[in-house]
Please model this.
Amino acid sequence: MEHITFLVAVVIITALAFDFTNGFHDTANAMSTSIATGALRPRVAVAISAVLNLAGAFLSVEVAKTISGGIIDESAGVHPEVIFAALTGAILWNLATWLLGLPSSSSHALYGGLIGATLVGVGTHGVHFDTVVTKILIPAVAAPFVAGLASWGATRLAYLITRGSSEQSAGRSFRLGQIASSSLISLAHGTNDAQKTMGVITLTLISAGSLGAGASPPLWVILSAGLAIALGTYMGGWRIIRTMGKGLTDIEPRQGFSSESAATSVILASSHMGFGLSTTHVCTGGVMGAGLGAPGGQVRWSVARRMVYAWLMTLPAAGAVGGAAAWIAGLGNAGVAVVGVLLVAGSAAVWFASRRRPVHSGNVVDEEPEPLPAAAATQPPAGIAA
Model:
């Protein structure tokens, strides 16, 4: 701790701010379907998710190592101002997509910001592109398909098992199951996403000489990252919860339980292997698979198309902002101050814009989604494969 300078302290605080945005941005991953089906009341859902996100942060550090010493070369001369610039890109993209209610990937926003800032601030030798491909890009493509297929199969099985049961009886049983399955997603989310901020803070401490190369996150880093993401989760990303829970498809309890169970399995397996995948991609794939797996099931492909566009833009957009911020921060202390001012101003602008049409726990399930397509049009249009 004796080597922590003012700039390093600012970077750590900014990393925890990103972790906070990650929490409310990704609350929908765990709790949107439980809220949509009535299995849990909105505030109870986010409270449970917050506690389990905190607990999950202590279960593993494999994903943290993927960032610290994984995608970024610790010995390439990465300085704290570069990491500050990367976090700026990630936070601003998170806030912009939250304002639009788009469940884009907080993880990919962070990766994009890190890659863009490192390329500008250090050079191409500062990024391990082989790790980017194997542990970020390939899982990003595979995860929605794997989760979607597993969720589709689980949904078909759920309807088969309950064939002949009354809708009321089946709904009650699967709502209880959803409490357990959505809780497991929150626990899994903590093991994956909280670690990403741990990795960033650890990378910052290594760059400042406070930790040796290849070090694991200290306990205080694990605790602070877990608390930040838990607090963000409790705030509730209501705009994205509305999109995931009601906008993509109409979810019944059997579908919700199936999608959550499938997503949990994929996230926990990836965390164990150190894959820095997006829990948003996994859970969205699970919801889509559940939507198609029900008898006559359908998906609002117009909503899915907007999500896919946001997914494709996340890495390059956050990277571009992170790279621009790194160039400004490289001008010296004044440049770092300018980046900080731009970050605060951009965040404030998004918050004020969100007040025009507030979404909160009291109205998150009130708005009626756009009509589902005709029953014959259940296949995705050309250009949508996710």
